[in-house]
Amino acid sequence: MKRRSLPVAAALVASAALLLTACGGDDSESKDNDKIAGADTGSETSASPTASASADSADRPKIELPSDLTYTFEWPKTGDKDKDAVLSDSEQFIKAVDMAIAEQDPLDKAYQFYSEGEAAAGSQKFIQEFVDYKDRITGAKRYFDAKVNVNSDGTAGLVYCEDQNKAYNKSLKTGKTNVTAASKDNYVLYSSRLRVNENGIWITETLTSQRGSSACQS
């Protein structure tokens, strides 16, 4: 399955690069451009209980996706409310970006609700490329092997894998799906840095990726 790599931008916290990738397009760019930063290794202490509680009443955007795009999040509950909130809000961020792609709106409010800074800017460029090609994503996406650390300063680090082997580009002009062969390059390792905002929402601030990562194929 070929991928179209997007531009690299400097990350806010780590010295790694921000790279978001998607189904379809030319994979001629070297994977050496993809860099990965590990999850934050600070102390695993709970964020503010008040912030976590306020997230329940936050005015979250409604996320509606095409019926032919499905997700499997193999992210079991950890039993820690802050870690589980990081996983849940990261899931919403992933879906919100795909919704913006489906709606062909690089400035959609939903993904901006769950991201800021470099992650938001990178997502906008990512979505814009799909708009330029008049494509969206179809098929099934699988996320697994999530590892999360929550720090006492209200930040968190998250590392996880994505299996894109059953996700494809669908042309909005022709309605045709570009079904491509399975490949080890369809396994992507992500690392993100998040912080909890005043509404108790875990906002993704930076996101890095490594395509074809052996860590996601074991």
What does this structure look like?
A hairpin with a 4-residue loop joins strand 6 and strand 7. By secondary structure, this protein is of the alpha+beta class. It is globular. It has helices at 49-55, 81-102, 109-113, 117-133; strands spanning 3-5, 9-10, 17-18, 21-23, 69-73, 135-150, 155-171, 177-178, 187-196, 202-211. Mean pLDDT is 81; it is low at 1-53. Helix 2 runs parallel beside helix 4.
Short description:
The chain is an alpha+beta fold.
Protein traits:
alpha+beta, six-stranded mixed β-sheet, 4 helices, 218 residues, globular, two-stranded antiparallel ribbon, 10 strands, disordered N terminus
Instruction: Round the mean pLDDT to the nearest integer and report it.
Output: 81
User: Hey, roughly how much beta strand do the residues contain?
Assistant: 25-35%
Q: Over all CA atoms, what is the radius of gyration?
A: 17 Å
Stretches with pLDDT under 50, minimum 5 residues: 1-53
Distance between the termini: 19 Å
Largest sheet: 6 strands, mixed
- Give the count of helical stretches: 4
Order of helices and strands: EEEEHEHHHEEEEE
Structural class: alpha+beta
Q: How many runs of DSSP E, i.e. beta strands?
A: 10
> What gross morphology would you assign?
globular
Helix content: 10-25%
